Amino acid sequence: MNNLYIETRDPLFGIIVFFALIFVITFFSYWWGRYKARDDTKYLDRFVKDLNTVPSDDAMKKIIYEGNIPSQSWLILAQSYIQQGDYEKAVEIYQSTLEVEKDTRQQQHTAILLGQAYFKAGFLERSKEVFLKILKHAPRTPRALYALLLVYDRLKAYPKALEVLEPLQELNETITNEKRYLECAYLLQRHDVTPEEKNHKLLNIYTQSGSLCYMIFDHLFRADSALAWQHLNHSDYTRISDILWQLPAEKYSMAHIDSDAYLRELFTAKGSLDLTHSSPVFELDILIKLYHSNNTGATLQFEYLCQKCKHAFPFSFHRCPNCYDIDTIMPQMLLTKDTFEENYAF
Ligand SMILES: [Zn+2]
Question: How many angstroms separate the alpha carbon of residue 88 from the centre of ligand 1?
């Protein structure tokens, strides 16, 4: 038993104490490192959360009411919320700012922004109420009048939109294009006009102004394709290339197609006629080559470019959803895989 007992002065005792100390220090360092890492992670999480957390509605209202931050700063913040698509937050800021704003002109400016935020969020009735309220106190406000016109247009309340043009005209605003567009839209909507009269009036708008080609021929090719072919200008074929591409074969006018190089290329590329072997339009040329090599694995799709703001949309429009200008649409060809052929070929 005495052999197993180690004296405190024994060198072996010192070595054991030394290793025990190393073990304790290593363990403590490891534990401290883990603790610090967990603490740092918690801090970073809190920091990121704080960055992403916006003040609650009540807190934000309280800050706005205190008036320590200029209203312009709040409007910039609201604008950034709109750009992120958070219209609800923007509306809250505009409403609270309106309640504390004393300057009448600034109040009007903020109220217009509030109406526009409602419009962008799709709350058209609320948007309308805001603009009507502004115009009740300041009827000669072109910005509010134009904004109200857009609301009525989106609501398809064309007679109301046409009424808004009157005060705009009195304010010497240029309303020619808006008037023509709204009259055309209203005409298309009306059920108390015979189809023949409707077509005749639409053609009158087109031949007299040379505008609204897409809107008018979108209707005419469905209603009376012979009349449409008869009056459509050659120079406008590219402006309605998607409408022509989707035209069923029974609505083709061979007299018009045979006499125009672009139409010969378009319908050969579609594979419904065989009238040419090439095209200066890249997409059509590829499809014509594929058609002549009996390869039907590709087709055309269209996207729609606004010629004014250069935004492209996957759907057609009469008024640009981005810049709200009218008659700016231009179909763009996109060469795509013909999935219909793949799915339905046997
Ligand atoms: Zn646009």
Answer: 25
Separation of 299 CA from ligand 1 center, angstroms?
27
Residue 153 scores a pLDDT above 70: yes
Rounded distance from Cα 304 to ligand 1 centre (Å): 10
Beta bridge partners of 301: 334
Distances (CA, A) of 310 to 203, 282, 304, 328: 28, 21, 10, 9
Extract long-range pairs of 12-15: CB within 8 Å, 24+ residues apart: none
Q: How far is the CA of 34 from the centre of ligand 1 (A)?
A: 57
Which CATH fold topology does 60-168 show? 1.25.40
Length of the chain: 346
Q: How far is the CA of 313 from the centre of ligand 1 (A)?
A: 10
What tokens does 221 get?
Answer: 């090719």
Cα(158)–Cα(118) distance, integer angstroms: 20
pTM of the predicted model as reported, rounded to 2 decimal places: 0.76
pLDDT class of 48 with cuts at 50, 70, 90? very low
pLDDT at 67: 67
Phi and psi torsions of 319, nearest 5°:
-120, 130
| Cα of 186 from ligand 1 centre, angstroms | 22
The string of pLDDT tens digits covering residues 67-124 is 666 777 888 989 899 999 899 999 999 998 888 878 888 899 999 999 999 999 999 9
Residue with tokens 């579609």: 270
CATH 1.25.40.10 positions along the chain are 60-168
